[in-house]
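Dear support,

We are seeing what looks like truncated structure output for some complexes. This example has two components. We would appreciate it if you could run it in full and send us the complete token output so we can diff it against ours.
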Amino acid sequence: MPPFSFIKKFVKPQWIRPFSLGRTGKPGIPGGGEDIVEGKHLERPPYATPDARVAERALWSASDGQWGRPARPDSKSPPRRSPFGAMSHEKRRILASDISRSIDKNLQVIMDIFHAPRNAGLIIRGIEVKTDRGAVRVALLYMEGLIDGDTVKRNLIAPLNRLNTLDKPVRFDSETAFQHIGEAQVFTARKYSQITMALVEGECVIFIDGEQEALTADTRSVKHRQVEESPTEAVVRGPHEGFVENLRENIALIRRRLATPDLVAERHMVGARGHTPLVIAYLEGVVNPKFVDEIRRAIDSISADLVPAGDITTWFQPVKWFPFPTYISTERPDRVAAMIAEGHVALVNDSPNVLLLPATIIGLMNSAEDYYVHPVPASMLRLIRYLAFFVTLYSSAMYVAITTFHPEMLPTELMFAIASAREVVPFPAALEVALMEVAFELVREAGVRIPSVIGPTIGIVGAVVLGQAAVQASIVSPIPVVVVAIAGLGSCAIPNYDLSLFARTMKFLLILVAAIFGIPGLTLASLLLMAEILSVRSLGQPITAPIIPFWRKNLDNIIVGPVSKLNKRPGFLRPQEVRSGRENPPAGKQLSRNEDRPSAGKGGEGHA
Amino acid sequence: MRDRPGRGVLDHFGHGRIDMLSVASVLLIYTVAGAFLAFPTRVAKAGQTAAWTIPIFSGVLCILWLAPLVYVLGKHPGKTVVEVTRDLAGKTSAFVFGLAFFVFNTAMIASEARQLSEALATVVVPLTPITFIVFTICATGIYVALKGTEILGRLSIVTAVGTTLNVVLLSALTFHAWRLDEIYPLLGPGALDLAKVYGLNQPMYLELLAIGILAPYLRKIPDIGKSTWVAGVLSGVILSLVTLTCQMMFPYPSLTRVHLPFLRTIRIIYLSRFLQRFDVFFVVLWLSAGTLLVTIGAWIDAHLISGVTGLGSYRMGVLISGALVLVGALLFPSMTEAIVVHSQVIRPYSLFLMYGWPFTLLALQLIKEKKRRTGGGSGPNGHPPDPSSRIPECGGGRKTP
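Here is the complete output from our reference environment:
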């Protein structure tokens, strides 16, 4: 029986996901390809979450005083594709092989893998350590810029040098090295693939001459901005924290708001060559397991070489050409925590945007502030947001349709006013509106790209000056300026950026249809649009749920329900526990202590 | 939920099941979408001052003739009315009934699409040619039909809610101007004539036969009856409300009693201006309902084509049906011919289907059950009956569940 095998009882298999080497990685086929190392688990868990490592470390420290040698628990998780992408058979064979006892050979292999010395990024530092079996050569390897120099110096180099100053040489090998190294997270690695992964992830690798095991120490240096208010989801009331460009910090922000041991953070790596860390966060015992399985499958099917953190969203958009969002992207930890508690799944990575799945049209229209104010004004604000969506979509198109095809629908005075204003304009109403819409989008886009100091000024001045100048030059009449401005305001009032983009894009199509066929055309186009929206699904759930299909037990739909009545999770998500709060005492008690929780008094169900 | 024996529509069309609300909405939209065309005039002509009672009383009668169909469909879960007919009466009868329903359905949709297009061209887009309007409506209808049954159901819910609210709102907004004396005499043409009118106006609910095609898609078998009753009653109320509003607002046969027609004309002009401002909502919902009518018609036709010919392709059926509706709608020389053919040929002759089909199926089902109870004929799914069912000690003699 291997030592520390009891760890299996305490460490969940999903915490530490093994990976198998040399898979050919057929794009789009999860689990496709061929295993080189069949059924053999690797000692160093390359995809282990930091939490899992800490848990393992704590268990080891309590195990009869024996430090080091982290035994790798067996895992039943499915094998993954090679994280190294396509490679030659020879390289694959080398990566899958065990490291040598000779430090020189090991260094040569690693240098070959990293194309050193052409590749200047790989740093190798040699130290000679005095031990009970004489002087032993030790090599520290790391990638330039990825490690924290101070940490390496303080926790690795200084302790190793200290061994040389001891009066009585001590035992120093891979078994006992843990006792001498000051770094908290240290693992053993037996294969070149593990060492390669550790290096590219920013860890420091220690080779000891004569040992067939290397050590990997987490000395990563991650610089990111401080936690500050989300610029896109600012609220008047409620917490002002937003996610940052650091995965660990983002997970910690969620954990602080959802302090329960049931909050699981599964770590995955996406991208065949550039490994982007991605965490699936959910509440065990609440979430519908099918959602998590579906997300794992989607992640496995990502076949691109490099998936930048911000690009994760595009992989969860099943209908490629129809731009309706199938995920909720948010920068607010309180909102993420609340929706995880409801039974949603969060995808967290090194980006301030966290994805929530499955998405619903209600979730897309919600604002975090809805649950920090009284339900009646909150409902009014939410209705205004729905109105804003329709105003963005239809106001310009309706103007074109009415002025071009149906002037009789207007009151006589207004009809004459429009006619007299348009008298000097040489363009048809459709072109007039299209010009103004394009100008508005230009101003908006320019406001985003130019430096933030003059950005808002450009936005306001550009809109006013452009509009006024266009009217004075008789390019457009004053009314389209008002109409386009209202549509622009409407798009800003939509709380979800993706939904706002959808409305802004579709608006141009509707203007075109209105110019061709008036209100009947708009009606038919709306029918098609509605059919498309109704057929959009997010993780298999209709995006329009719980309105259509109607789920009558959910009070919190178009209007904001009273907090005291929101004691059930959304049934259409098929959560494992429908009721929250009293029936789930441990989670409920922990949640009730969290003062920043978005919906105090609702037990485990948070809404935001 | 009982499992569906044998091969049915779900197998070769691959659509999901829908709930009762969706089915009721599909039936409701299918029945009332044409109510804003020539329907009020036709009903007012038949029922005079009691015209508004026709949809309600006819609706009650309609529930009676639909009861046998609902009963038979409940006994054959997962099968369309054509498949049930094939099981009970053989292939030839299924072919005859299926083909008749297909012809009536296509002709009805074609004429209503033409009426809708003509009305749009007259009132909203006078410069647009009819061909373009018919084509866009049919193209949209086909596209939506190709999205499948679930989307059809959901879209019907949205449109049904909008249409119902719109009808109620329009009636409420004009209520201050209603001339309530228009409903006198209460019995219109007289009690006897009115009773005849109630019976003869059954074809206004021909569309409810669509439950025969929708039944296999229902999640729960008992909902077949529920959704039919709900759709029937709601249709009756909406059609009555539309008729009553028109009767109270505009000149109908009862207008012959008015002595000052000039003043009536002024009133119409005033109200028309009011409606002109308001009709933007009305046109949108009306056109949506009309387009969905074409969609549902194409959906039903696709199933009928499949049932009659054995063609297992839903998309092909929808495209064939859409093409037939487009050609049919353009065959009518004008709106007048479309109205005449619709109200004097298609609707009256559909009585053959409405009364003939459900009651024939009921009779055949009862005969089959009687034979099964007495031991004759074949057992369920074509197997010989279990001999133990005739032995009292083994529980024989009782009705099988």
